[in-house]
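Long-time lurker, first post. I've been practising inverse folding by hand and with some scripts of my own, and I keep getting stuck on stretches where the structure tokens seem ambiguous. Below is the full token string for one chain I'm working on. Before anyone asks, I'm not after the true native sequence, just a reasonable design that respects the backbone. If someone could post their per-position residues I'd love to compare against what I wrote down in my notebook.
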């Protein structure tokens, strides 16, 4: 089935050999980061909610590693990998999970609210679907400023049934906004399977109601994601029009750290693990004779060393000072004092 034409702008951009290797390295870094986060959460060093991305790395890596630094990205609450791949130092992401003042949100956002405007990462968002209209707003900002940047917006299949998804899609199509909407369909909204929640299987068909370009992507294949997203990005830069991509992927862990995932069978999980995106990328590198076994060993050693630095930084960073408790909540304390003073004078 032909699901995307992009007005003849099918660039079919393929990653270079160097980029192929980079995809493997980036996915491995994100996997090791999440594994460390799982251990830290289990020992009580990370509080609150924690949603791991293990199994879905190909989507974020394929979509973000080919963007410009000036392009925007925004995600839901399962966003550690997205933040890292958009350029935030893993040290600051882990410190945020730890609630430390050196974190990307000064320890106040935690796992679900990583943010860094310098990297143009517009945050993780705990409200289901809450990031989608913000992405449309960022797209409108790009249009208003007349640049050729784009916005890549990630959300789960559970968010596609929210009303705000449809409102945002309609405006993005109507106003010609350069947004690539990526639905990371990992088959389960918390513990509810897609088949029990959606009247259709092909979620990319939601774009048909808005005459928007669409496509289905193999979310376990980083190269396939890279190619399809690059096509959508090229289309957005040239036409300022949006695209909806459904990336069919799978999470190997529960919805969150507190979820035992008893709603799926071991056979299903093992079947999906046989298509582990990192293993698939390794097989591809070997098949194309781009690297040898020594290269994989060196990368593994490099990533482990980086993670040691990341964990040490998070462990040794200080907690936020109590004096910062009310900072960045609504208004700065001094501004609030001025307002209260003005009221009393009146």
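-- Answer (accepted) --
I ran through it position by position. Result:
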């Amino acid at each position: 089935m032909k699901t995307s034409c992009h007005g003849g702008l099918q660039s079919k951009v393929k990653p270079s050999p160097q980029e192929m290797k980079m995809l493997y390295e980036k996915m491995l870094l994100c996997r090791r980061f999440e594994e460390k986060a799982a251990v830290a959460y289990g020992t009580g060093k990370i509080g609150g909610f924690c949603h791991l991305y293990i199994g879905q790395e190909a989507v974020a890596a394929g979509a973000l590693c080919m963007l410009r630094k000036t392009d925007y990205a925004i995600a839901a609450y399962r966003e550690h990998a997205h933040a890292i791949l958009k350029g935030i130092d893993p040290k600051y992401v882990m410190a945020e999970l730890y609630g430390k003042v050196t974190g990307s949100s000064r320890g106040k956002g935690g796992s679900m609210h990583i943010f860094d405007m310098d990297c143009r990462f517009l945050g993780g968002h705990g409200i289901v679907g809450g990031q989608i209209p913000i992405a449309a707003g960022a797209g409108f900002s790009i249009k208003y400023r007349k640049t050729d940047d784009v916005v890549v917006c990630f959300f789960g299949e559970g968010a596609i049934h929210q009303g705000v998804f449809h409102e945002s899609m309609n405006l993005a199509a109507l106003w010609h906004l350069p947004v690539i909407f990526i639905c990371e369909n990992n088959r389960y909204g918390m513990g509810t399977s897609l088949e029990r929640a959606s009247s259709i299987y092909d979620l990319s068909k939601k774009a048909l109601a808005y005459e928007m370009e669409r496509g289905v992507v193999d979310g376990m294949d980083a190269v396939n994601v890279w190619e399809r997203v690059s096509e959508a990005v090229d289309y957005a830069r040239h036409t300022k029009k949006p695209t909806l991509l459904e990336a069919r992927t799978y999470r190997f862990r529960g919805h969150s750290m507190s979820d035992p995932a008893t709603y799926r069978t071991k056979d299903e999980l093992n079947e999906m693990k046989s298509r582990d995106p990192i293993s698939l990328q390794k097989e591809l590198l070997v098949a194309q004779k781009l690297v040898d076994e020594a290269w994989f060993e060196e990368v593994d050693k490099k990533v482990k060393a980086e993670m040691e630095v990341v964990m040490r930084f998070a462990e040794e960073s200080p907690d936020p000072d109590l004096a910062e408790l009310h900072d960045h909540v609504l208004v700065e304390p001094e501004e609030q004092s001025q307002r209260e003073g003005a009221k009393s004078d009146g």
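A couple of notes from the structure itself: The first helix runs from residue 17 to 42. The chain has twelve helices and seven strands. Happy to go over any region you disagree with.
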